[in-house]
Amino acid sequence: MAQDVRGVIAPGKNEPVRIETVVVPDPGPGEAVVQVQACGVCHTDLHYKEGGISDDFPFLLGHEAAGIVESVGEGVQDIVPGDFVVLNWRAVCGQCRACLRGRPWYCFNTHNARQKMTLTDGTELSPALGIGAFAEKTLVAAGQCTKVDPAVSPAVAGLLGCGVMAGLGAAINTGNVGRGDSVAVIGCGGVGDAAIAGSRLAGAAKIIAVDIDDRKLTTAEKLGATHTVNSRETDPVEAIRELTGGFGADVVIEAVGRPDTYEQAFYARDLAGTVVLVGVPTPEMKLDLPLLDVFGRGGALKSSWYGDCLPSRDFPMLIDLHLQGRLDLGAFVSETIGLDEVEAAFERMRHGDVLRSVVVL
Ligand code: APR
Ligand code: ZN
Ligand code: ZN
């Protein structure tokens, strides 16, 4: 029996979000219905609302979520009703070229639920990143659910579903930060701060936080930054070189998504270092670099989507580390809010007042 639940809908481009009744069908083959307990507010939700991602309005927003599996469809084996799960937007197929070559984080056939959730008049909803979890319940592909230790609070667990995983993974997966490395993180919002926490976890010796906002640098220090640079006042490339004996950082993580910060990241790395690009630029942005510099600097330039994570490998591990007190995921939850406060949370996000607002149901 399909069920009616409350959900946060983006009805049209730049229109305010509103709460509507969402019809959630019973799970079909390979699908699951999850009772959502918490869902973080991410920039991508705002981008959906602004029409920057797709025109398929109306959207059911929310995609950084954790909850309890309520029911599963035919053929679902890895999860059963009652399991506590974190949702992911990258359920890999296991069969494409990327999967077969051992790089499933590049899988091009990611799974979502086949059935659609709708409004009560039958209008089909587009769930944000195939999840749609600003709702009491949501329908997803079973592969989008990863079982984790239920001892963790849902608000904390859900963070791994997107931004915090992107930052942690940029450091530990893409950047392969190792013991003794020097790391510079440019941009210390939720993603950059997670990259800082990931670098500390990986044993980095020096972690240099760069931002234009002193408030952000204070938080970055709490999460593990050993040095801070306000790049409004100080040339960050010079400062990073100075702090690394003139060499540049072994790993530079860019978590802003602008041409000037991409360029800083390019020049702030050690000649044999790695640049990890996490910040998402807009289509018109361009970088103009002397080819001699591109040629003359070795190392690697990598981009990182979703922290190159494998949810089934990384989510349980990171939650275990949090429960052991070795990774403070709780520091990323700035506030918990209700479903009706998403629009206000977008406003606070725009002003840089929060790392994460998390809707708790
Ligand atoms: N130099 C340094 N830091 C900057 C600059 C700049 N020129 N401009 C902005 N920042 C800082 C902001 O002060 C803020 O602390 O970058 C940070 C961006 O943080 P958020 O807006 O909270 O964004 P976040 O969620 O961390 O995502 C960062 O990663 O995954 C991508 O799409 C995401 O592109 C976005 C980026
Ligand atoms: Zn695949
Ligand atoms: Zn997100």
Q: What report would you give on this structure?
A:
The structure is a single chain. The chain is an alpha/beta fold. It is 27% helix and 26% strand. The strands form 3 sheets. Strands 3, 5, 6, 9, 10, 17 and 18 form a 7-stranded mixed sheet that branches. It has a 6-stranded parallel sheet with strand order 13-12-11-14-15-16, with helices on both faces. Strand 12, helix 6 and strand 13 (227-230) form a beta-alpha-beta unit. The protein binds adenosine-5-diphosphoribose and zinc ion (2 copies). Residues 43, 163, 166, 186-192, 210-213, 216, 231, 255-258, 260-261, 278-280, 352 line the site of adenosine-5-diphosphoribose. One zinc ion is lined by residues 92-96, 98-99, 104, 107, 109. This is S-(Hydroxymethyl)mycothiol dehydrogenase. It comes from Streptomyces dengpaensis.
Can you summarize this structure?
By secondary structure, the protein is of the alpha/beta class. It is built from 11 helices and 18 strands. The protein binds adenosine-5-diphosphoribose and zinc ion (2 copies).
Average of pLDDT = 96
CATH fold-level topology of the largest domain: Quinone Oxidoreductase, Chain A, domain 1
The assigned structural class equals alpha/beta
Provide the gyration radius in Å. 20 Å
Tell me the span between the first and last alpha carbons: 22 Å
Which stretches are low in confidence, meaning pLDDT under 50 for 5 or more residues running? Answer: none
Count of distinct strands:
18
Cofactor: Zn(2+)
Keywords: Metal-binding, Oxidoreductase, Zinc
Organism: Streptomyces dengpaensis
Protein name: S-(Hydroxymethyl)mycothiol dehydrogenase
